[in-house]
Amino acid sequence: MASYDASFADAVPPVALGALDGRYRPVVAALVDHLSEAALNRTRVHVEVEWLIHLTDQQVVPGVRRLTATEQQALREYVRGFGAEEVAELAEIERETVHDVKAVEYFLKRRLAVVAPEDVDRGLAELVHFACTSEDVNNLSYALMVQGAVREVWLPKAHAVADQVVAMAQELRDVPMLAHTHGQPATPTTLGKELAVLAHRLRRQLRRVAGAEYLGKLNGATGTYGAHLAAVPDADWPAVSRSFVESLGLTWNPLTTQIESHDWQAELYADVARFNRVLHNLCTDVWTYISMGYFAQVRGQGTVGSSTMPHKVNPIRFENAEANLEVSNALLDVLGSTLVQSRLQRDLTDSSMQRNIGSAFGHSLLALDNVGRGLAGLDAVPSAMAADLDRNWEVLGEAVQSAMRALAARGVAGMDNPYERLKELTRGRRIDGEDLRAFVDGLGLPVDVAARLRAMTPASYVGAAPALVDFLE
């Protein structure tokens, strides 16, 4: 084992352990405002501020005055201005409390003492974090963070990539292409129609993600409002909880243990993972089309294709995306399966697990960036597709035998055993246009049918493929 004189462990500035905070940081930086530790603490402060305002606005606790509009604005400004200094202050408080949410409570009480001095409102500070367990604050914070990350960062990028695929499908709708089923030449299609299939799948998953529910709860240590009712027995605490959760733009969950059950997270992550898998399918298909020469990669983009082979332009964007989609899905899958489990009324597995949400979305966002850049660097090569079609006239055997079957069904004589006759002509051998036309001429077909089949080529045998692109929503 090699030994080194220098260590990176204590380097300043710190050296990133993972790729997302290292070489790929610029691509995923937008997620930091939503899914980082700092974002979690800022959102906790936001939830605590809004809970305090809600309690006083609704006059839930008798004898406590409402915060004025000026005081409310001042408290909300602390949330809006939450930055590096506040992160450092919270870390300092947490070293004393050894509890992250308790540190947020003390942090806010310091601010409240400025907004509403203790000599005037000595008891107001006791409504900070009133009747809350840590999970009341955390579950609402995570719901808001994930909602923001999905709606403001991930979905716009995912829609942009899906729109790229749609645009390519529309542009290439009429370009005929030999299909391959089981890796073998099959009934021709168009490149645009095949891209439209992928675009349709991507957009369907995006509609599911866009329609996701983000649930939240605020009901105490075991979901019973025990402390709430002990302190203020005459308040309608479920109604207070519901109105507060909904005021944050979340869906209220009325029945939980100490933790919000996280089912909504599992549902969301399953949909994002499914989108990732469709995108992975696009990557492998496009990679294969590149290897077949159906797409050319645009040169001159400042990339080195191969360190030793100067003629190569490697499809690295799609390969990079595949890898990151797989990492993202591994994380999304374990998040979805773990978060819906909790021993009895509470265990802490979800607390540790949720700290990986940012990484799961980060790898997906990185993949989207690579796919977008990869697609932008492609040019279709119709001549390569045309050459492949012209080498595979045998794919028209399907058309001929289908026409014969239709005639046989109508009672036209001489159309018996169409499949077997075409099988004998085409299976295991290549034929050309002359071979096929000679075969058609010997079938005794009605004149119009014979003329239609004689005029057909592999490039024209694409059915309704171009028009099917119009089904994209």
UniProtKB/TrEMBL annotation:
Q: Lineage, please?
A: Bacteria, Bacillati, Actinomycetota, Actinomycetes, Micrococcales
Give the record's keywords alphabetically. Lyase, Purine biosynthesis
What role does it play? Catalyzes two reactions in de novo purine nucleotide biosynthesis. Catalyzes the breakdown of 5-aminoimidazole- (N-succinylocarboxamide) ribotide (SAICAR or 2-[5-amino-1-(5-phospho-beta-D-ribosyl)imidazole-4-carboxamido]succinate) to 5-aminoimidazole-4-carboxamide ribotide (AICAR or 5-amino-1-(5-phospho-beta-D-ribosyl)imidazole-4-carboxamide) and fumarate, and of adenylosuccinate (ADS or N(6)-(1,2-dicarboxyethyl)-AMP) to adenosine monophosphate (AMP) and fumarate.
Name the UniProt record assigns to this protein: Adenylosuccinate lyase
The protein's Enzyme Commission number: 4.3.2.2
Q: Which family does it belong to?
A: Belongs to the lyase 1 family. Adenylosuccinate lyase subfamily.
Q: Which reaction does it catalyse?
A: (2S)-2-[5-amino-1-(5-phospho-beta-D-ribosyl)imidazole-4-carboxamido]succinate = 5-amino-1-(5-phospho-beta-D-ribosyl)imidazole-4-carboxamide + fumarate; N(6)-(1,2-dicarboxyethyl)-AMP = fumarate + AMP
The protein's annotated pathway: Purine metabolism; AMP biosynthesis via de novo pathway; AMP from IMP: step 2/2; Purine metabolism; IMP biosynthesis via de novo pathway; 5-amino-1-(5-phospho-D-ribosyl)imidazole-4-carboxamide from 5-amino-1-(5-phospho-D-ribosyl)imidazole-4-carboxylate: step 2/2
- GO BP of this protein: 'de novo' AMP biosynthetic process; 'de novo' IMP biosynthetic process
| Matches recorded under PROSITE patterns | FUMARATE_LYASES
Domain (Fumarate lyase N-terminal): residue spans on this chain: 32-321
Q: Which InterPro entries match?
A: Fumarase/histidase_N, Fumarate_lyase_CS, Fumarate_lyase_fam, Fumarate_lyase_N, L-Aspartase-like, Pur_lyase, PurB_bact, PurB_C
Tree of life domain: Bacteria
Pfam families, alphabetically?
ASL_C (PF08328), Lyase_1 (PF00206)
Which stretch is the leader sequence?
none
Stretches that traverse the bilayer? none
* GO molecular function terms attached to this record: (S)-2-(5-amino-1-(5-phospho-D-ribosyl)imidazole-4-carboxamido) succinate lyase (fumarate-forming) activity; N6-(1,2-dicarboxyethyl)AMP AMP-lyase (fumarate-forming) activity
Q: Where is the Adenylosuccinate lyase PurB C-terminal domain?
A: 342-462
Does the entry feature the keyword Lyase, yes or no? yes
Organism expressing this protein natively: Lapillicoccus jejuensis
Q: Which Gene3D superfamilies match?
A: Fumarase/aspartase (C-terminal domain), Fumarase/aspartase (Central domain), Fumarase/aspartase (N-terminal domain)
